[in-house]
Structures are given as structure tokens and as C-alpha cells.
Design brief:
Layout (H helix, E strand, L loop, with lengths): L1 H20 L2 E4 L1 H11 L1 H22 L4 E10 L5 E5 L10 E5 L4 E14 L1 H68 L5 H36 L6 E4 L3 H7 L16 H22 L4 E14 L12 E11 L7 H67 L5 H36 L2
Helix pairs in contact: 2-3, 2-4, 3-4, 4-5, 4-7, 4-9, 6-9, 7-8, 8-9
Length: about 450
Amino acid sequence: MKNIFILMLTLLSLSINAQDSAKSYSFSLQQAIDHALEYNYSAINSGRDIEAAKEKKWETTAMGLPQINAGVDYTNNFVLQKSVIPAEFAGGNPGDYIEVAFGTKHTMIARSTLSQLIFDGSYIVALQASKTYLAYYENAKKRSDIEIKEMVINSYGNVLLAQENIAILEKNIASLQKTLNDTKAIYKNGLIEEESVEQLQITLSSLESTLNYNKRLLDITYKMLKINLGIAINDQITLTDKLDVLTIQNMDMSFSNTEFDVNNNINFRIASNFEEQRTLEYKLEKSKALPSLAANLNFGYTAFKDEFQFFTQHQNWFNYSNLGLSLNVPIFSSLARSSRTQQAKIALDQAKTVLSETEQKLKLQYATAKSEYEYSIADYETAKSNLNLAERIEKKQQIKFTEGLSTSFDFNDAQRQLYSAQQKYLQTMVNIINKKASLEKITTK
């Protein structure tokens, strides 16, 4: 019993700590978009891609700047290389040779090298490519932001849709429950058949099941929105915008009449980056036929000892220095260099074709998105009108049913028609918001 009590206290403590660590947020749609552009996981990593590209650009630039290296070389000649010299050099007999060992057991060299690239066509092309590399990731970041904005708009709208569905279902259930109670009373008085009561009970059960589903769906849509916003799914979030208000704000027919410039589309600009990269790769292969020239300056000290005592006061260090130039001239590669150049040319032609294809697809996407946005507005007006009609029809059928002038089947048909009109009306509201976001995604600079 004591262990159970301790376990319950532990679980209660963990629950309290979890609640304390959870954060609370309140967002309008624009605030949600702004928050996601800063804290969405993809937005964070795409920003890091830009920082990495900047470092890569500097890495490429530094390749053509002076390079300084230093080092220390130590050699232990535990067996010295031997050679022979004429014996007469040491007072021996002419024609004889004696063995001698040149050098010392320990050798140490302290050295430094300054190198500088003077000319290399590949380096010049690499500098140009590093700028294109950075531009690609900057455009990729913009595309990521545009996609994040669309995802937030869609998920924000889905939460509002689920909330409105729940509110309407609860209203319908309350109204139907009252009608069912009245019908039961009429049935007890023998004025209607039991089938009418059962029909209403079936409809009520169906509505309650749909309500439970939408409550579960609301939880899922909230979590999806939180992920898009870059916040923990256990955090609390409140949406301050209303579905009907956002719908009115996004009904702008003049927006769809703006001229579409494909050069402003981020996907087209990325395709242009790709073509430019292939152009530079082609130039790189061609530049490999050019000579390259580099210079280096070497400076160092060398010391020799039979004992490892290089750091004594009287150690002699012998300095050396030299200046060198290195010229490399490509002459013949058995056409390998030409083959690589032709491969790069083919890749460039493919990139040009992709760019042309991207342009035509984007024009089609714009025409489609524009048409769907305009239709969503017209569809909303139709759904709004149909909802008003369905409400009047259902109300009339309810009066007729309670007065015994129509059957439960007629009343049920009117109810189903109303429920369908309600769902259609809410969906058309969300469609306007989503289709506007899709059109903005294509036309955003």
C-alpha cells in the first residue's frame, strides 16, 4: 500500500512538472505565419544552409589567397647509410676502398612555406560557382518560407474548420434532442408511430458519432499546426482569428487579375540557378586546358646531432631558403579532357531544357490556381445561398413533422440536406483561404 502511495505521488509530481513546462501561445493567422518563419524546423535548417554556403564561399576564395604552413621534421638514423670512398683518401692503398657513414644519428628540420596561386582558370570559375552556390541556398530558403507559409495557412484553416464543425454539430444535436423529446411525448399520447421516434434516434446517434470524430480530428489538426509552427505538441495554443473573417479578407478578385511574371517565381529562379551551375561546370572543364602558375617561398633551419640534444645552448642550426615557381601546361590527355567538356556541354543543354519545361509548367500552374481561386469564391456564394434555403426547408419540415403533416422520412431528408449544406458552406470558406494561399505561392516574388 505504501509503494502504491509513493507511485501515485511520483506520477502526480511528473504531471505537475509537465504542466509547468508547457507553454501557452495565442496567434492570429499572420502571427502564426511570422512565428513559423522563425521557428519552423525546416526554416531553421534552411537558414543554416545559407550560413554553411557562406562558409563554403569563403573556403573557395581562400584557395587563391596566400597559404602559410610550418612544421618540424625529426629523423632518427639508427642505421646510417654507408658509402665507399677510395682508400688513398685516408692514406690507404690505391685501388682499395673503405666504408664511411655520412651524417649524424639525429636530424631535425624546422621549416615554413609560403605559397601563392598566381593563375589558374579553374580557380576563377570556382569563385563564380561559389556565388551561384550561395544564391541557390538563398533561393531555397525563400522557397522553404513560401511553403511554410502555405502549410501554416492550411493547418490554421483546418483547425478553424474543425472548431466550426463541432459548434454546428453541437447546435444540431441540441436542436434534434429537443425535437426527439417532443416526439417521444407525442408518441406516448398515441399520435404518431414509433418509427418516427426511432428515425430521430438514428439521426441523433449519427450526429453524436460525427461529433466525436470531429473532436478527435480537432486534436490532430492542433498538433499538426503546432509542428508547422515549430512548437511542442504539448504546448497550449489559442487561435484568435475566425473562419468567416478570414474568408472575407481573402475574397479579392482583383488579386487574381495581377499579371504573372514567371521570372519572379522562386522555382523558376532555382531552375535558373541550376542552369547557371551547369554553365560554370562547362566553363570549368574548358578552363582545364589552360596553364596554371603558382609560387612558393621556403625557409627553414636544419640541425644535426649524434645525441638528442637539439635544445641546448650551443646547438648549431643551419638555415636555408628558396623561391620556386611551378608552371603546369596541359598538352595532351588522349581526348579525356575533351570528353569531360562534352559531357558538361550535354548537362548544360539538359539544364536549359529543364528551365524551359519549368517555365511552361509554372504558367499552367498559375492558370490552374487562378481558376480554382475564382471558382472557390463563386462556390462559396452558391453554398451560402443553398445553406439559407436548406435552413428554411428544414424548419418548415420540422413544423410539418411536429404537427403530423409530414413523415419522419421527409423530415430526415430535410435534416440531411441541411447538414450537408452546412458542411459544404464551411468547406468553401476554407477553400477560399487555401486557394488564395496556393495562388500567392506561385506569384510571390
